UniProtKB/TrEMBL annotation:
Protein name per its UniProtKB record: SAF domain-containing protein
TM region positions: 46-67
SMART domains per UniProt: SAF
Keywords attached to this entry: Membrane, Transmembrane, Transmembrane helix
Residue stretches of biased makeup (Polar residues): 1-12
């Protein structure tokens, strides 16, 4: 009897120790539902450094853009198309802000220095005014050249005729007679139709188109006469000719 009692006491003591060990998580199976301790998080210094660099880089870029915006200066810009040989007046000019290191672009503060100059080439609306586009003396002065307005007929002039085009002007012959060369002339105002269309060959009423030519003074009357009798024809010689290149204009009268 005493031996069994002693054995039961030992067994009870062993079970008590096992329950205590299990409660402490030592040995045996963990109690159902018991949460395992979370593993320690690893720190990633490279990713943290990259984030910091991105933030600093974005701030620097934003600062640079803001500085660039602040460094823009007001400069002169054309408010409309300006044919070659036109006097530059205040109403032709507006202003815009740009960032540029060019010494040719005219700042708003230098407006008075360009008033009264003349365009040596055709200028377009929205174009920044550039001193290389201007001349001080009137290219139409000197009595050597004249402006002549001529009506144009489709099929007798090149398509897409525009300011700065050098053309050969011919009086078309009658009754099978050969034509008469009149001049090498410069288109200074592009053909515009009477119905408001654009350049000849680009739409609009071609029959109502007319252009202004810069011609040698000695053949101006002959060109006016040929234009009045609807006998004008032209061929394209060159494009992008400045109005100051007056030496390229010459009389062809007498050439056959």
């Amino acid at each position: 009897m005493s031996m069994r009692t002693s054995t039961e006491s030992v067994s009870d003591a062993v079970q008590d120790r096992q329950r205590a060990r299990t409660a402490r998580g030592v040995g045996g199976r963990a109690a159902p539902g018991a949460s395992r301790p979370a593993p320690p998080r690893r720190r990633r210094p490279a990713f943290a450094l990259l984030g910091v660099l991105l933030i600093l880089g974005g701030a620097a870029l934003a600062g640079l853009l803001a500085l660039r915006m602040d460094s823009r200066d007001p400069v002169l810009v054309l408010r409309s198309d300006v044919p070659a040989g036109t006097e530059i007046t205040r109403d032709l000019l507006g202003q815009t802000n740009v960032a540029s290191d060019s010494d040719l672009i005219v700042p708003v503060g230098a407006l008075s220095s360009v008033l009264g100059t003349y365009s040596r080439v055709p200028l377009n609306e929205g174009q920044l005014l550039d001193t290389s586009m201007l001349v001080r003396t009137n290219p139409l002065g000197g009595g050597r050249v004249a402006e002549v307005g001529v009506p144009l007929v489709e099929g007798r002039v090149p398509d897409g005729l525009d300011s700065g085009d050098l053309v050969r002007v011919v009086r078309i012959g009658e009754s099978g007679e050969p034509g008469t060369p009149l001049a090498l002339a410069l288109v200074i105002q592009p053909p515009v139709s009477s119905s408001g269309g654009g350049v000849l060959g680009g739409g609009g009423d071609a029959k109502g188109s007319a252009a202004t030519l810069l011609v040698p003074i000695e053949v101006a009357d002959a060109i006016v006469d040929a234009a009045g009798n609807n006998r004008i024809g032209m061929s394209l010689v060159d494009r992008g000719v400045a109005v100051t290149d007056s030496e390229r204009l010459r009389s062809l009268a007498g050439d056959r």
